Amino acid sequence: MTTSNPTRPTSPTLVILRGNSASGKTTAAREVRRRFGRGAALLEQDYLRRTLLREHDSAHIQPVAPAFITAAARTALDLGYHVILEGILHTERYGTALHHLIDNHPGPVAVFYLDVSFDETVNRHLNRNEPIPVTPDEMRTWYTHRDLLGIPNETLISETSALEQTVTTILHTSGLTTVDPQTPCPRRCRHCARESAQPHAAEATVP
Questions:
Q1: Which pLDDT band, with edges at 50, 70 and 90, does 180 fall under?
Q2: Given a cut of 90, is residue 174 above it in pLDDT?
Q3: Which of 15, 35, 132, 159 has a 20 to 30 A CA-CA distance from 5?
Q4: Is 187 helix (H, G, I), strand (E, B) or coil?
Q5: d(CA 1, CA 111)
Q6: Which InterPro entries does the record match to this protein (predicted)?
Q7: Long-range CB contact pairs, 54-59, < 8 A, 24+
Q8: What is the maximum alpha-carbon separation in the chain?
Q9: What is the domain partition of the chain in residue ranges?
Q10: Alpha-carbon distance 165 to 27, whole Å?
């Protein structure tokens, strides 16, 4: 879904990228942010839930993570960052919070779902550089077929889509290829100004 509020034409863009484990969403989200550059916040569900909160993703508890993650996204948007939010983000636990985030964002919103079959997720897990020690039976308990948010224009990306194609689809469909950073750093920072004057300078040199 891509929407806009004419009274706030400079509202930042919200991109949500969902899919099952090993669907490729984290790799794609990181590459989208890398290509956009400064001014886009990358929020990874696994890091926020597992590392910051140390919360289990379970249907048997009243989780804090959905409210925490969407509040982080809302804060970044309010501060002028474009936001790329990625994760499994099961509708059972995250659907209400995500719908509220989307419905209350005045700027552009683009939602993507990486539609990868169970057999392919198993294959990708087994072929990771650092395989996760889980069995296919354990993985099946995580897997949900087409766990869509049910939002108009939610974009499905097939398992046959290579990384380059997936990243290009996300960048163009979301409109991130045509928007500028709105955060203070890219607009006013002397380091960013120097980067603009020297476009081939490595980002790693900027403190």
A1: confident
A2: yes
A3: 35
A4: helix
A5: 6
A6: P-loop_NTPase
A7: 57/88, 57/90, 57/93, 59/92, 59/93
A8: 54
A9: 14-205
A10: 13
- Measured CA to CA, the distance from residue 144 to residue 59 in angstroms comes to 14
CATH class of 14-205: alpha beta
- Pairing outcome for strands 40-44 and 14-19: unpaired
Is the Cα dihedral 58, 61, 65, 66 positive or negative? Answer: positive
Ramachandran class of 10: left when φ > 0, alpha when ψ lies in -120 to 50, beta otherwise? alpha
Average model confidence (pLDDT) across the chain: 86
Report DSSP letters for 99-155, one per residue: HHHHHT--S-EEEEEEE--HHHHHHHHHTSSS--S--HHHHHHH--TT-----TTPE
**Residue 174 in tokens:** 């979301």
Helix-helix angle 91-103:65-78, to 10 degrees: 20
Sheet containing strand 40-44, edge to edge, reads 40-44, 82-87, 14-19, 109-115, 155-158
Residue with tokens 């509020």: 5
Percent of the chain with pLDDT over 90: 61
Q: Quick one: pLDDT at residue 186?
A: 78
The reported pLDDT for the residue numbered 56 is 87
